[in-house]
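Retro notes, structure queue

What went well: the backlog is down to a handful. What didn't: a couple of records were mislabeled last round, so from now on we paste the full input next to the output in the thread. Example, using Bifunctional NAD(P)H-hydrate repair enzyme from Sphingomonas psychrotolerans:
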Amino acid sequence: MIPSGAPIVTAAEMRAAEQAVFASGVSQDSLMERAGAAVARETARFATGRPILILAGPGNNGGDSYVAARLLQNAGHDVSLVATGAPAPGAAERMHALWHGPTSSLYAARPRPVLVDGLFGTGMTRPLERGLAAVFADLCKQAEFTLAIDLPSGIHADTGADLGAPRGIDVTLALGALKPGHLLDIGLERCGRVLLADIDIPVHTRWRTVTRPRIDTPGAHSHKYSRGLVAVIEGAMPGAARLAARAAMAGGAGYVVLAGDRPWGEGPDALVRREVRTAEDLSEFLGWDRIDAIVLGPGLGRDRRAEAYLRAAFAAPKPLILDGDALTLLGTDAARWLETRAAPTWITPHSGEFDRMFAGVGSKIDRTLAAAAEARATIVHKGADTVIAAPKGEVRLLAHGSRWLSTAGTGDVLAGLLAAQVVQSGKGVAPAEAAVWLHARAAQLAGPALIADELIGHIPGAISECL
Ligand SMILES: NC(=O)C1=CN([C@@H]2O[C@H](COP(=O)(O)OP(=O)(O)OC[C@H]3O[C@@H](n4cnc5c(N)ncnc54)[C@H](OP(=O)(O)O)[C@@H]3O)[C@@H](O)[C@H]2O)[C@@H](O)CC1
Ligand SMILES: [K+]
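Corresponding output:
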């Protein structure tokens, strides 16, 4: 469980925020006392009287450990401490000097029921040394409850990459703000439950976790067109487009048209069919001024006609949602193509599609942000760690994704749901954030081993939580 709408900052931004606090007259010691007190509070809450082993690394993460150890001991807990080296000069060293309880070296450490990991936090620069990682993993394994201070040692703060983090961390207490490492890559699965401790460090960022949207009940004068018309374009695999169209309907669009060469195909009776057999037919249809958003890509195919459909959709001056085969067709020229569009565009690649379209280095956030700026499109970079990025620098990270979403068709549902949010809530990151939240919530409501068709049935339930 990760707090919704919580700010996310990189290690460097966190350090800068700390420096600003120091510049305002707060000492490093008092900030470390705040951090250590938060750690002690949460540890005590979960320890329920059991003996505690605290691991203290050489940096300020270790400094937090020394504070927590002292406060827990003063409160009557049975605390022992393991130090992996001499504390760094400054606050950590001073906090070390204030600890008067039992201390051992890592290799002499005996497991205890409660383990607090204060080895490394945002300062991890390289993989854990093998011997240390093995002892640490063993102590975690033998503990009944493990809490990591700020980040599990062995998770890269900015990327979530695995630098040797153990399994079995129950709670990670993020200090001041979430870091990308809590939500990305291996970090997402190794942090356990993430709690956020407010230690009074103001942070300014455009990166947040996805929040529940507020959705308006249709007004007294609402009608099918005012609630938005979504056009979904069918292709070689019509089931995918049908899923997108049904999801747009369930997502609250007022009118959904499925355009393709199967004018009397299956689907709900409320789904309007429009016969489109050629790119010319499609261009003519997309010229209809009632259309508020177009979905292209689910099951489109990659043949000549698909390419011509893509060109027709690009030429239409309407909000456009591109997924699946449309993204594959864009290929490595994606950014060049996308940035030519005057109307807003959203693309929803999974990592394979994203990597085929965009180069880039850094974390998933860095790469998605760079691609969004280059393509001038809002990108929903799907995965267990979904990242939404907009051209002007906003980022949203999904904190409650369901692993059960990794089945065929769930992406088509997301594309349709996104179109429904685009026609209802406008530009940029907001509709993408709403769609991603509803999609994830519908998946939770659908439960394990869900299939995409069932997911659609749970969208209204997810919406009802947003009214
Ligand atoms: N500033 C403050 O007052 C506040 C800070 N806070 C706390 O401080 C944490 C950040 O502290 P930090 O910057 O000191 O980094 P930290 O994570 O302790 O590690 C740095 C040390 O580890 C070393 N090292 C790195 N990787 C290594 C490896 N693989 N194997 C071995 N060594 C390795 C590295 O060595 P070096 O790379 O320099 O050789 C350096 O000595 C933050 O997460 C939060 O808990 C909060 O309490 C708020 C107040
Ligand atoms: K840690």
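Agreed that this is the format going forward. Reviewer comment attached to the example: The longest helix spans residues 28-47.
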